[in-house]
Amino acid sequence: MPSNKDASAHIWNNPKFHELVRKRTVFAWTLSAVMLAIYFGFILLIAYGKSFLGQSLSGGVTTIGFPIGVGVILSAIVLTGIYVRRANGEFDELNRQIIEEAH
């Protein structure tokens, strides 16, 4: 059985490891950029579209801003779910292959 140092070197030199790091990094930054765009878009809407956000949805007390705000929160949950799904599928499979090849 190889030592930890040998296994670490084998993993570091494995092209699948670099593929995993690249894919995970690009995917995480992409989802982060999407979430930041949604969040800052909402903040800009609050700053410059107060009259729009303050309009009543159906003549009652609920405004247009409320479902949009809930949408911002739900988008974070959805994006997290997308990341977890891919991490538990493709990323975990690559990780398993890398560990298997190191032993």
Summarize the structure.
The chain has helices spanning 4-13, 15-48, 50-53, 65-102.
Query: Which structural class best describes the helix and strand composition?
Result: mainly alpha
Overall mean pLDDT? 92
Shape summary: rod-shaped
Poorly predicted spans: none
For the sheet with most strands, the description reads: none
Strand content: under 5%
Number of strands: 0
Query: What's the N-to-C terminus distance?
Result: 7 Å
Rg over CA atoms: 22 Å
Q: Spell the H/E element sequence.
A: HHHH
Helix content: over 70%
Q: Count of DSSP helices?
A: 4
Labels describing this entry:
single chain, 103 residues, mainly alpha
Description:
With 103 residues, the protein is an all-alpha fold. Helices cover 83% and strands 0% of the residues. It has four helices and no strands. The chain has helices at 4-13, 15-48, 50-53, 65-102. α1 crosses α4 and α2 packs antiparallel against α4. The N and C termini lie close together (7 Å). The model has no long low-confidence stretch (mean pLDDT 92).
SSE blueprint and pairings:
Elements: H1 4-13, H2 15-48, H3 50-53, H4 65-102
Helix pairs in contact: 1-4, 2-4
